[in-house]
Amino acid sequence: MELHNGSLFWPTTLDGEKTIRGRKEIDPHYDAVIVGGGMSGALTAYTLAKEGLHIAIIDKREMAGGSSSANTGLLQFSNDIMLYELIEQIGEEKAVRFYKLCQEAVDQLKKVADSLPRQVDMIKRKSICYASTKDDVEKLQKEFAALTRHGFPAEYWDEVEMKKHLPFSKAAALVTHGDAEVNPYRFIQGILEHIQQKGVHLFENVEAMEAEEQSDKVMLNTSIGTFSATDIIYATGYDTNPINDKIGSDINRSYAIATEPIDDLSSWEDNAMIWETKRPYFYMRTTVDNRIIAGGLDEDKPEAPQSKEWIDNRAQRIKKELENLFPDLPIKIDCAWGASFGESLDNLPFIGKHPHRDRLYYLLGYGGNGTVYSMLGSHILRDLLLNRPNSDAELVKLERESEKELV
C-alpha cells in the first residue's frame, strides 16, 4: 500500500545525513521484535530499551519512511472526539482518564525529545479550536465546561474576544494549554539514533511475513530470515497489517502543505496550533523557520492520491483557506502531499495483546492524535510485556465493541 505521494516537507529538514545504519545479522533471540520503524515503533523501542530489554525493529521501507514522514507534528491532549462526547460514549471516569493519559503523554514526549542527541524542534504551544459555524458554539461551550470541570487548562473566547487575538473572527473558540509541536521526522531519527546507541537493532527494507507461536517464543519469518522473540509488537501504522488482522478502523486519505518561510507571523498569536469543530477538520501550525503547515480535505479512499494535479488542486484549496483566515500573510506553497490516514470507529486507538494469540501485541494509533497515542501506548505495552498491572490497558484493548473479526 502506498502511504503518501507528492513533495514531503519534513525529510528536507534533516541536518546532515541519517546516522542510523541498518543491520544485516539477526541475533539468536530478542525479548521483543517491533514491526514498523515509524513513530509508534520508535517510541515503543525507546520505552522498552529503558527496561534493559533486547529489542529489534524491522521495517519494509527505510525507517520513518511510511506515514510518519507525512505526519504534521501537532501534539494535543484534545482528541478528534471531544471530551464531553467521549463521556457520553464510554462514561465519565473512563473518558476523563483517557484525556489525562493524552495530557501526560504530551509531557512525556517532551522529556523524550529533551533526551535526544538531535534538535527536534519540540515546543510547547497552546491550541485554538474555533467554531466552524454558529451552530457549533454550543459544542465548544459543552467542551469548555467538561474540560474545566476536570481540571484541564482551557479558556473560552466569544466572538469579541477572538478579535483581540487573531486577524479572523468566528462565533467562538476554545483555547487549551500544554500542547506541543514537533518536527516528526527529526524526532523519529533522533529516537532511532539514541536507541541504536543503547543496543537496539534496526533492520531496514525487511518485510515481515507470518508469525509462528511456540510455547515459549514466537518465530517471525521475514525477507532476510527468521527472528526468534519472546513477543512481537506490530506498530505498522496505516499500512496493511502483516497477518491481515481486521479491526474497527477506517483508512482514509488527507492532504497537507508547507508554505515558504514568511517574514512576519506576528498576527499569529503565540504561534498557536489552530483547528476547527467541523469533522473532518482544517488545521494549521507554524514551524521554527516561519513556515505554515496546514492540512485537511479528508477523502474516503485508503491509498495516497497518485495524481500530481489532484494533489496540487487540494493544495490550492488549503492555501485559499489559509488566506481567508490570514489575509495579511503572503502565502506561497513550497511542498504539498497527500497521505493515508487511519481512524478507529470509536475514536480510540488499538493498543494491547491480540485477544487470541498470547505473544502478539499491537500499537495502532489511529486518529489525529497518533503520536500522543504512540507515547501512551508504549507505556501500556511495556507493562503488559513485563507482566505489570496497568488498568489503562482496558481502555484501548483490541477486543472492543467496534472490533471486527481478528484472525
Attribute tags:
407 residues, 2 domains, 28% helix, 27% strand, disordered C terminus, D-Amino Acid Oxidase, Chain A, domain 2, alpha+beta, 9 helices, globular, EC 1.-.-.-, oxidoreductase activity, FAD/NAD(P)-binding domain
* Total helical elements: 9
Helix percentage: 25-40%
Question: C-alpha Rg, in Å?
Answer: 21 Å
Output the CATH topology of the largest domain. FAD/NAD(P)-binding domain
EC number: 1.-.-.-
Enzyme class: oxidoreductase
Domain FAD dependent oxidoreductase: 31-383
InterPro entries: FAD-dep_OxRdtase (IPR006076), FAD/NAD-bd_sf (IPR036188)
Short structural summary:
This is FAD-dependent oxidoreductase. This protein has 407 residues and is an alpha+beta fold.
Describe this structure in words.
- With 407 residues, this protein is an alpha+beta fold.
- It contains nine helices and 18 strands.
- It folds into two domains: 4-71 and 185-248 and 346-396, FAD/NAD(P)-binding domain (3-Layer(bba) Sandwich); 122-180 and 249-343, D-Amino Acid Oxidase, subunit A, domain 2 (D-Amino Acid Oxidase, Chain A, domain 2, 2-Layer Sandwich), CATH 3.30.9.10.
- Helices cover 28% and strands 27% of the residues.
- Strands 1, 4, 5, 6, 7, 12, 13, 14, 15 and 16 form a ten-stranded mixed β-sheet that branches.
- Helix 1 (39-49) packs parallel to helix 8.
- The radius of gyration is 21 Å and the shape is globular.
